[in-house]
Amino acid sequence: MRRMIGFMCEGHLLTGTLDEAPGDIGLLIVSGGNEIRCGAHGGQAQLAAQVAALGHPVLRYDRRGIGDSEGSNSGFMDSRADIAAAIAAFRREAPALDRIIAFGNCDAASALALFHDGQLDGLILANPWVIEEEQQDDGEAADTPTKPSAAAIRARYWDRIKNPRSLIDLFTGKIDLKKLVGGLMKAAKKDQPTGLAIQIAAQFSQSDVPVHLLIAKRDTTAMAFMGAWNSDVFNAARGKENIRLSATDSTSHSFASDADKKLLLSKILEEIGSEGGT
């Protein structure tokens, strides 16, 4: 059974959707970006129904200023209170819960990594966001698009090099040699971990909560994360037994294809079990 719930977060009413089930292991889904709780094309609502049908209650919610929830949208970096309120509401509304596993994609994954505060029993973090937007002099985000990471540029050029058509375009002058050289120089650079990546690495090194990183290898956000993950900043995290990483050869940031949806469901079920209860 699916029902709407409401709960308070710092004086604002948040709206959530609970897919009820008898199991004592629940799934909390945190939406990324400014996405409402149903997810892109209803993907998170579909995922919740599938997990609940296997016996696990699932809670999705809109953070402050998003969808049906009150308040102002201050972005994922101001969502600690929203996550804590959702966890508390989940436990109230599903009192049989013994454990809660949380899933988040993109900046929701980063928010969970930073702000779970030891209140969760496991994290499934897909394509964590570690890219920091360009800032204007007044501190606001600039209107220009975020620059792709060197890892993403390398992947793009590697795909072009493997395509025989690119060689033909090069020899016939269709490819601007000056732009090509400039792009290759950018691709050769080593990405420097952002402040956000450093914060996530610090949280990983300090926490013993089980973390399953799920990476779509050809997604540009995931490429940026992997550039950081393979840097010295994450040395301590890479050596921890409670953190594991799975990579899939996909371009889909939100696991939109049928194959990606099946993979995502299977990885979630690995963490929470395929049957209700323990």
From TrEMBL:
It comes from the Bacteria. It holds the Pfam family Hydrolase_4. Residues 43-219 form the Serine aminopeptidase S33 domain. Keywords: Hydrolase. GO terms for molecular function: hydrolase activity. InterPro entries: AB_hydrolase_fold, Hydrolase-1_PEP, Hydrolase_4. This is Hydrolase 1, exosortase A system-associated. It comes from Sphingorhabdus arenilitoris. The lineage of its organism: Bacteria, Pseudomonadati, Pseudomonadota, Alphaproteobacteria, Sphingomonadales.
